[in-house]
């Protein structure tokens, strides 16, 4: 069986749990509290030298880190990955966008404000991240005003990856009021078969 080192409040971990559920793959959850350093122990660093969750242990014992890499491996051969090379590349383009232009600002502010409760301590960095997070939301809004899902007509890994932190953007101080296409897309993602909320 797969084993997943994860934290319930983490969007990066939620991506993996959402996909596992949508693929109907059984797995064991291993709660890992990053706030008390559980991803920085010697034992954990042996498995992921980068000291972060999610970390998936394959049934044969091999470890795999990085949420979007985990998604790509689990979804291999499924309808969540496009078969056409260009369409698949467009889908991965959005996975990279999520990690470089979205998550570092929206997820990081959410972490400081909502999870760590350190909004005052990190006020300067939160303020710096804010325009960049809104920039990512604007890119999403423009794209979603023309398509139903990120990589075209059907729901794919790109939607799972971008849903994870967008649907809780308010917890990072980001309002979705000015992003109607993003809000409509969130509803389409929630309506997918076997969708589960982050709190499940
Ligand atoms: N790029 C990584 C980011 C993983 C990440 O930042 N994980 C956070 C939780 S969301 C973590 O484990 N932080 C603990 C630490 O840095 O000590 C991914 O997508 O999996």
Please give a structural write-up.
- The chain is α+β, with helices and mostly antiparallel strands.
- It folds into two domains: 2-75, Glutaredoxin (3-Layer(aba) Sandwich), CATH 3.40.30.10; 85-190, Glutathione S-transferase Yfyf (Class Pi), Chain A, domain 2 (Up-down Bundle), CATH 1.20.1050.10.
- It is 50% helix and 8% strand.
- The protein has helices at residues 11-22, 42-47, 67-75, 85-115, 123-144, 157-166, 180-190; strands at residues 2-6, 27-31, 55-57, 63-65.
- It has a four-stranded mixed sheet, with helices on one face.
- The protein is globular and about 45 Å long.
- Bound molecules: glutathione.
- Residues 10, 12, 34, 39-40, 51-54, 66-68, 99 line the site of glutathione.
- Residues 10, 12, 34, 39-40, 51-54, 66-68, 99 line the site of glutathione (GSH).
Annotate the secondary structure layout.
Layout: E1 2-6, H1 11-22, E2 27-31, H2 42-47, E3 55-57, E4 63-65, H3 67-75, H4 85-115, H5 123-144, H6 157-166, H7 180-190
Parallel strand pairs: 1-2
Antiparallel strand pairs: 1-3, 3-4
Helix pairs in contact: 1-3, 1-6, 4-5, 4-6, 5-7
Bound molecules: glutathione.
Briefly characterize the structure.
This protein is α+β, with helices and mostly antiparallel strands and 200 residues long. The protein folds into two domains: 2-75, Glutaredoxin (3-Layer(aba) Sandwich), CATH 3.40.30; 85-190, Glutathione S-transferase Yfyf (Class Pi), Chain A, domain 2, CATH 1.20.1050.10. The protein is 50% helix and 8% strand.
């Amino acid at each position: 069986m797969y084993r997943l080192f994860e934290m319930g409040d983490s969007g990066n971990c939620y991506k993996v749990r959402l996909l596992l559920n949508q693929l109907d793959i059984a797995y064991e959850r291993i709660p890992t509290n990053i706030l008390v350093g559980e991803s920085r122990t010697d034992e954990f660093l042996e498995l992921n030298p980068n000291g972060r969750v999610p970390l998936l242990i394959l049934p044969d014992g091999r470890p795999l880190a990085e949420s979007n890499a985990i998604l790509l491996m689990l979804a291999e051969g499924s309808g969540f990955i496009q078969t056409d090379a260009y369409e698949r590349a467009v889908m991965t383009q959005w996975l990279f966008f999520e990690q470089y232009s979205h998550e570092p600002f929206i997820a990081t502010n959410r972490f400081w404000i909502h999870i760590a409760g350190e909004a005052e301590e990190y006020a300067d960095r939160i303020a710096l991240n804010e325009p960049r997070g809104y920039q990512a939301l604007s890119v999403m809004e423009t794209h979603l005003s023309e398509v139903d899902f990120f990589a075209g007509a059907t729901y794919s890994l790109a939607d799972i990856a971008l849903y994870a932190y967008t649907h809780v953007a308010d917890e990072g101080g980001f309002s979705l009021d000015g992003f109607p296409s993003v809000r409509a897309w969130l509803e389409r993602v929630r309506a997918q078969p076997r969708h589960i909320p982050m709190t499940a």
